[in-house]
Structures are given as C-alpha cells and as structure tokens.
Amino acid sequence: MNFLFRPNIRGLLSAASLLVLALSCNKDNSPGINSQTSSLTQTLAYGNNTTIFYSAVQKAGLDSVFSGPAIFTLLVPNDLACTQSGYPQSVIDGFTREQARQWVLYQTYAGGILTAESFIGKTEEKIIMANGDSVFISGDSNRTYVNGNEMTNSELLANNGLMLAQQYVVLPPTMNLEQMIANDTSLSFLYQAVQLASPVPDTLSNVLSTGGPFTLLAPDNDAFRSAGYSSPADLDTANPDNLRNLILLGMIPTRLFSYDVGDSSTYQSLADSTLIIYILGLERSVQVLGSSNSAGFVSVNQMAINGVMFKIDSLLSR
Asked: Domain 177-312 adopts which CATH fold?
C-alpha cells in the first residue's frame, strides 16, 4: 500500500477550501482512509513510505496522542527523506523512547493547522514546536522553506490535523556558532583567529556563543592559506585588532538563509561596513562596499542555535 501526499495547489484555493478538499489519500491506494474520519496516526499507519516516521511515533508513545482530539501539524519526511537525512530504520530502532519523542516533537506543531499557503510572504517566521524548540519558515507562492530546507509543497489532511511533506528530516540545531567553528576542521584557522582577536569590549568566543542571532560568513582554511598563512599558528603574530575586524566584517546581526538573499542585496556588518551579495546563476559572492576583493560561497545554510553560518573561500577586506 503506497501512501501519497497530493500537491499543494497554492494560489488556486483558499486555505479553507484547501482543507475541505482535503488533499487526502487516494482511496484506491489507501482503503479506509478518509480525511474526515481518519486520524493522523491512522493515516501514517496506512502509508508504506511513512514507515520510518510512524515507527518513531510508536516508539515515542505518541500514536495515541495523534489519534486523539487535539489538533496537530506534522512535518513528515517519507522513508527516502529519513534515510537520506541519516535516519534509516536502524537508527530509529536504536532510539530510546525519549530520543524518539524529541525527534518527533520537533517535527510537530501542536494546537493548530499550518498550511504551506499560510506562509506565503513570510520571512523566517518563528514557530515554536511541540518540544519547545523553534523552527524558522519562509514562503512565497511557489516554495516553502523550513530551517533552510525546502518543503515538497504537498499536504495531507486528517480529522485532527495536517501533514506537510518534507524533503529532509527537520532537526534542531545542537551547537552555537562558536561551537560550530570549534568542531569544524575546515575552520581551524578561523577558530584560532577567534581566540586571538582583541577581547574588547567582549571576547569573540563569548559573542559567538551567547549573542545573536547572527549570519556568519566564515572564511575556511583555504581562505587563510590564500592570504599567506600556512598554519593556524601563523596567526599568533597577526594584529589582534585586525583579527577582530576581519571576523566582525563577516557577521550580520540577523538570521539569513540563502533564499532570503537577492542579487545585489546589501547588509550592514558588525564592523560597520556594508556587504554586497551578488548572485549569478548558482554562484554567489560577497564583498565589502568599496573593496575590489570578493569571496565566493563554499556552503550555505548551516543552522546554529544562535544563527546561520555560510562558509566563504576568501578573507573579506575593506
């Protein structure tokens, strides 16, 4: 039996009519499932390609909760999405009850129905999920993003809520920006620079761990090597004020994901300089206004507890 999400037809239906029409399971594929009478648990149980998510629901003891009268919106990754995100059935089988509960509840909004259509025009709308952590959702007439990942724009109604199909497992960030730098071997030069930078008015370690939200443009090791540094130890002789300014140049005092940024967008950095981001096809670059040097983006949308990190391939300069 194959569980099918049907596509969201945004722009053609109001939210109310969308729910009435149900976007429900095909009766030929899922006999007995009806959006007016079937609960979220029943609908998940009938779907072969929601086996992994449903098994986590069962292990968490939430199957009875999702069968009750309370209303929920579930962000549901199918089996392929779970596997590609690093959560095959074997990982779920190894979960404790509490681990399964936290995994499912971060993908659960309690107390209401959130359609993809409801996020049209929103930019990083903060939603508190059932485990108490936040997700950030943006949307336009064609796409919806959660924590930097695009939804599939498919919805499925049950009698006690709605399921939104996901291309990836939605996971809460586990590290702040300082911890992400410290634990990433491709950022060992940057980590050394953070430690050596002038600690006035506060250490950058503290700013990156407790401040924010920030968007951090983090130069990778090759960026420092291109600037003439052979190893992180070479930074010991660098001017601490210059190191602080270098890092602050790449810190924007707001949370941004790549889809929030348009071509030639400008942002003020914590170094009181204007950054310009250019987009040419799939290529993105950034430079300080008035500088002839630019840096390309190596990776985007790495979510931290207190912001988002983008890796860049050159050091920013005024």
From this structure: FAS1 domain (2.30.180)
Coil/strand/helix, residue 314: coil
pLDDT in tens, 168-178: 999 999 999 99
Tell me whether strands 134-139 and 144-146 are parallel, antiparallel or unpaired. antiparallel
Chain segment 271-293, per-residue pLDDT in tens: 999 999 999 988 999 999 999 99
What is the rounded distance in angstroms from the CA atom of residue 293 to the CA atom of residue 287? 6
Please state, as a whole number, how many other Cβ atoms lie within 10 Å of the Cβ of residue 289. 11
- Host H or E run for residue 205: helix 204-210
Q: Is 94 helix (H, G, I), strand (E, B) or coil?
A: helix
Nearest to 220 by CA among 253, 240, 193: 193
Each domain of the chain, given as residue ranges in start order, spans: 6-166, 177-312
Give the separation between CA 6 and CA 22, rounded to whole angstroms.
9
> Do the bridges between strand 125-128 and strand 134-139 make them parallel or antiparallel, or are there none, so unpaired?
antiparallel
Q: Which tokens in the block code for residue 309?
A: 């990190």
Please provide the CATH number assigned to the domain covering 6-166. 2.30.180.10
